[in-house]
Amino acid sequence: MMPLLSAFGVAGIGVLLAQLLAIPLPWLLGPIFACLIAALCGLPMRGITVLNDGMRTILGVAVGATFTTTLLASMVGMWPTLLLIPVMTACIGVVGVTYFQRLCGFDFATSYYSSMPGGLQDMLVFGEEAGGNVRTLSLIHATRVMVIVVALPFLLSWVWDANLSNPPGAPAVDIAWTQLVLMVFCGLVGWQVAKRVGMFGASILGPLIIAAALALTGVLQHRPPAEAIWAAQFFIGMSVGCKYAGVTMNEVRTDVTAALGFCIILLVLTVIFAEGIHLAGLAPPLETILAFAPGGQAELTVLALIVGADMAFVVAHHVLRIFVVILGAPLFARLFDVRG
Q1: How far apart are CA 141 and CA 116, in angstroms?
Q2: What's the pTM?
């Protein structure tokens, strides 16, 4: 119980300090910074997995509620940039494996699954089956998500002058209770149905599909209130920071340092692809950077919601990236015999 209470207390303090210091996205970055610092200081913390997943359903409903027939029609024209997702994923894999093997001295299995920009749980499962170091994989992917999520708000503000102070939604009091109940239905039912059929990213994609269907038919007319989006940011930020609980100084020197170096590579690759796409006139720069940044799907969905980006564009590219990684990782392991 104490680790759980510690996590909530530290994350809450993080929100207050972030608001006082005027840090962008205080409900997301505040808990990340505070829980990270507390974890590195040795404070035991943990979150509630079911509750964290439940908070992600809010993001799925929020994205689904933005769908319109016009938005769906626009997805047909995304194919040029969608085709670049497997190309970028392959580039990340080649550069990442070389970096982790040659410079960091990791074995091939750990290097490969550390490089793949997929979901944390999926990469841990695949990596463990291939004989990789699970603890190293966990720290590297947690660091990847943290650095991308922390760096992007500042890049969006400084380079693209994005407004990160926009309210993420209307206040709950301004939304009819029937709409709020409908959102809860979309979140819970969508999540559980998607989970039962084995859909990856079930806590986000399941609610997204049901909410989109209801939005397209005019039944769902609002996205979740601001308070719900803030709560989702809080729990996601706390979850990211708590992943460092129990980390040792040796792991900081080896695994976390290696991950930070890899994050620089990822940011450079993201900027290169985003700039190339922008110069070719294939997509706007803001949407491109959010769609191609290899961070967590939930975290980047939050950023896209706040800055008012084209949600269909951003989500479609991240779903494809996760799909490519999940299908490609085990296939690559069989072809190249990662075990041996």
Answers
A1: 9
A2: 0.81
